[in-house]
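User: quick one, sequence for these tokens?
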């Protein structure tokens, strides 16, 4: 599969699912078991606002490689002006960029780097 040229929104589509599984597993590992508490905690990570925040932190700290930044930028710049009502378009596009990066790494079978990025997020 030619992952590098895959549609950015397709990368974000799979990345969203992978990201959510990592976060849910992390929350269970922390000992959370009540569904309401799990949901409240998950929102901090999986909401567009949370995802955009973590992406910006990684960019500010030069945590991402040039190749990874290109994937993020391609997804952020994708022509899609629709977004959820509870977030602004810039936050949504940044969240999409993070999801695309997660999807890209997953489809490339670069699980070591994917784990590094998820650990970075979990440690913040």
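Assistant:
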């Amino acid at each position: 599969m030619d992952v590098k040229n895959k549609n950015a929104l397709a990368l974000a589509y799979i990345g969203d699912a992978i990201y959510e599984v990592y976060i849910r597993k992390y929350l269970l590992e922390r000992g959370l078991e009540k569904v309401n508490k799990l949901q409240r905690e998950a929102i901090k990570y999986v909401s567009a606002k949370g995802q955009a925040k973590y992406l910006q932190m990684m960019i500010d700290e030069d945590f991402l490689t040039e190749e990874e930044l290109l994937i993020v930028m391609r997804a952020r710049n994708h022509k899609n002006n629709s977004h959820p009502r509870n977030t602004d378009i810039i936050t949504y596009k940044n969240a999409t960029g993070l999801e695309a990066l997660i999807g890209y790494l997953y489809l490339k079978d670069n699980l070591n780097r994917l784990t590094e990025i998820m650990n970075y997020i979990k440690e913040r």
